[in-house]
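Q: Hi! First time doing this. I have a protein sequence and I read that you can turn it into a structure. Is that right? Here it is:
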Amino acid sequence: MSKISQIFLLTLIGGLALLLNSCKTDPNSDIADVQIAWNLVRLDQKMLAAAKEIQQSPDSNYFEAYQHHLADEREFLFYFTGLEMVEAQRGPIPENLIDTLIALKFGPVLADSLLLALLDTVQQVFPTDAAIESAITPLLKRVHLHFPDLELPEIRTHVNGYTPAMRLDQVDQTFAAPGYLSLGLHYYLGPDYRYLSPTLPGYLRKRFSPAYMECNMAHEFAFGLVPTGLLPPRASLIEKMVHAGIRQEVVDELLPNTPDSMKLFYTTSAMEWAEVHEKNVFIELSPDLYGKGYVLHRDYLGEAPFTRRISRESAPRLGMFTGWKIVEAFRERNPDIRLDSLIRITDYEGVFKRSGYKP
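A: Yes, that's right. Below is the predicted 3D structure, encoded as structure tokens:
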């Protein structure tokens, strides 16, 4: 064999080796053949244009700005401005009033100069759709892979400012409405963004990184697929733990390449603490498993920098962590139960008993 032939053969073998290796390490090989159609609308950019018109054109008014830039998002804005709740309380809103009401509710927000500055900042951080699409596409493909009968929502982005207290229940990093899922891009400007409220706890602040975009969306899907309404009216702690664990299992399947610490909203040190103390945590939990008090449930499952019933040094929400471990053990014993079947199980105490969980 000539020297040139040898070089060609070695190059070919090396190329094939690289190709095979890349196939083995491709984190998205499981969804390589999944085809989906989805739509992203940058509502924040439409809001920016409307806000500029309102604030920079003396003759403009809310309704004209709405008609020029936002009217094609009428259905989404009907939910986003809370008009569906008005309908639920007072009856159907006349069709010819909906656009006017949206403009009246949304206009004063767009007239705020601070919101205009925030919208402009978001545009500078997310000038194109590329970063958003790269974060969302694999997630949506896995949603379709695991739940092929589920209609994918329309994806939107929004910006609506910050509340003074900025409690977690006031932070709309995601906003869900029938047929829609929207990302609040002002909550992805980084944990050190200067206009975030100083009252915002550090353990929540870290979630305001763009890296958490797909994680928050995965949790939104999990909440929709495993709603709170599936729990019995007087649920015990173990029932709530397993219910939360099934949600976390959905998140885990949708984000197979994301560290467990991120999926649980843990720091690395909190994740290590939970894993090291898993057995002791379950021993601490055991006497309370069938308890039904609000404070008990809050202490084990509620948002906090640590788990109140364990210690100030503990990882947070250890009831959820343990619930997830129980669900993982249950699936190991029942490998034939697919994710789309798991979410339909409502005998949460039965899942615990059948899991054989022994940390």
